[in-house]
Predict the structure.
Amino acid sequence: MVEFGGWDMPVEYTSIVDEHMAVRTRAGLFDVSHMGEIEIAGGDALTAVQHVTTNDASRLAIGQAHYSALTTPQGTFVDDVLVYKLANDHFMLVVNASNIVKDFRWIAEHIQGIGDAVTVNTSSRYALLALQGPVAREVLQTLTGVDLSGIKYYWFANGEVAGVRCTISRTGYTGEDGFEVFAPPSAAERVWDAMLQAGKGAGVVPAGLGARDTLRLEAAMRLYGNDMDDTTTVLEADLGWIVGWNKEEFIGADVLRRQKQDGTPKKLVGFEMIDRAIGRHGYDVYVDGGKAGVVTSGTQTPYLKKAIGMAYVPPGRTEPGTPLDVDVRGRRARAMIVPMPFYKRARS
């Protein structure tokens, strides 16, 4: 157990490798109730969401979610978020645990004057449980009358899970198919126990922060505070696809449009170690003999059985096949830029 974002969180229940492999081959259950929820409601809620986030929320249908970002006027990250459209006048943003207070204040400040739009930090109303892996749907289906096969990726529905009224979202942070279940905190333990019991025969195991990190890295999902922060823009993090380029305006739009046209001073890439070494977070990265940056995330992955990572490199040196060196405890180890994601699940 470790302190994380003000919560006591499990790093591992048995071992990171076992939990990682369970999610890739069966399913794992994560308690991610530390994540925050911030709601924006009112007649001008859409205008408010459009102003403070990069993606185009006008394209969302009720019951649909998308990945987006809260950005500064410089186009850098306040946070990365999921935006859920609950109703035409009601949206929910799921934010990172360590950023809840900061994000709420940022949103409240920047939607002032937009008219009929208010924001509320509703994090205390939700527990969040994530069942992730190839057998997640069939296991969860035994606990709910909601037709889970009818929920498309990045859509959600309301219904009972283990007799508890919940919101069931087909989302996750592992690269696998799966569901995130929003439940009342008072009933979270009941839903957790029911999921584990339902999945017992299928080999479902509880999983902690360690496996969550190695899984998301294999899937090349960015981690706020490591791979992006208020010093990196959305385009530098290679996330241009979460920008609604046709929107009239949003915070940071001018900078991001200029970078789209002129290029960025650095860009996040994926790499794979060639030498027997692991490039870990904070290790220096060299390109053409000169220091280019640091490893933002890196590990030896249990499923791919490769040492992989992400780092920022100069423009013009981002193509797959480009050689890198990583300083591993005073020794330069060879690596190579490779396409991301490192792992992509087979579609059924």
User: Anything to note?
Assistant: The radius of gyration is 20 Å.
